[in-house]
Amino acid sequence: MSQAIRHPGAGGRAPAVRRRRAASVAPTFVALDFETADSGRDSACALGLVRVEAGRVTRREQRLIRPPRKRFQFSWVHGLDWEDVEHEPPFGEVWTELAPLLEGAEFLAAHNASFDRSVLEASCAAAHLTPPPLPFECTMRLARRLWQIRPTRLPNVCTKLGIPLRHHDAGSDAEACARILIAALREGHAL
Q1: Is residue 113 domain-resident?
Q2: pLDDT tens, per residue, the chain with 191 residues
Q3: Structural domain contains residue 24
């Protein structure tokens, strides 16, 4: 059985990100992106994490994950199938290795954060791990609010902001999400 990952402030939810954050303050955060094998939220098959400190990307990590089932419904989306991940570690091992990237982070960021949050929570539950008690910032909502971008799919936002993207590559998607937030902060927008 895997051990629970300890996070700063574990034992309850962290306070929400301050919505009136001064534009001059550059928060430390981690952008993440999951790709899933099937419609089960516990079926993570790829994970990208990008840590940002003082407005700069300081670390990038991308891992393939062996999901709990061999069924791959979404190969047409991300190009991964069982043969790509059958010898990779399961989520619990991957997350235990990568969780230290979250130390000192004020929040997590994702494009369509409700999806990635649900994958993280379901995958942690299946692996008997405690999900990090960090709030999420959604760059999809941010793009609508700050730049009135519609539609707000990740490729649309990246095209509008000039951010390179290999869509549905977990590392590229996570980095694009981080760069959307960096762009907002550089323009002086409060999160």
Answers
A1: yes
A2: 333 333 333 334 443 444 444 444 689 999 999 999 999 999 999 999 999 999 999 999 999 999 999 999 999 999 999 999 999 999 999 999 999 999 999 999 999 999 999 999 999 999 999 999 999 999 999 999 999 999 999 999 999 999 999 999 999 999 999 999 999 999 988 77
A3: no
Whether 16 maps to a domain, the answer reads: no
Its domain, for residue 149, covers 29-186
> Domain of 87: which CATH number?
3.30.420.10
Please check whether residue 79 lies inside any domain of the structure: yes
Distance CA(36)–CA(86), nearest Å, equals 14
Alpha helices in the chain, H assignment, sequence order: 75-78, 82-85, 91-98, 113-126, 139-147, 154-161, 170-186
Domain count of the fold of the chain: 1
pTM of the full structure = 0.86
